[in-house]
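thought: fold this chain, then report.
action: predict
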Amino acid sequence: MVSILETPAEAQRQETVTRILDSAEKLFRHYGYAKTNVADIAKDLGMSPANIYRFFASKVEIHQAICARLLRTVQQLAELILDQEDVSVEQRLREWIHAMHKITVETMMDQEKVHEMVIVALERDWQVVDAHIDRLNLIVADAIREGILAGEFPQQDPDSAARCFGAATVILCHPQMVAQCLAKPNRATPEELVEFAIRALKN
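observation:
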């Protein structure tokens, strides 16, 4: 649906950008990021590479936009779970981390090409990843602040608590860490880590 503030030209541009990202993500998932180039994306869309470059300066820029889109989906999930009503903040945090771990295992680990896209983004330390972490920290901090007001957690700095909670549970959500630790008997289980992090918030 076109915004009443959006001109036809802007709407057409956004539609083309979406088509490029959809095609690129499809090809990255099928062939892998390294084996896909801009010419492949252009061919899939029936347009010239020069036309792709009108919207994106490089394959890297396309990849960044796809990652930003994927990460927005994660942020929406965080908001959906952590903004629930009639559910304790403790339970919401528990559900959130378990949901993230499930996504990491099922999507990023089981789908090798998706895993490759994520790893490239993490290794290049893109700003989009840092912005994503900052946004998640804000969402979690809001939930912790609510828990403090409700008496679930003692008085503490919600922003610091959110960063520490994320650091304590990142091993369950980071593809490389999950790959290294999955099913190893001498590693803490997801349940143990989540409960440890929640106990820290309550002490």
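thought: worth noting. The chain has a mean pLDDT of 88.
final: tokens above.
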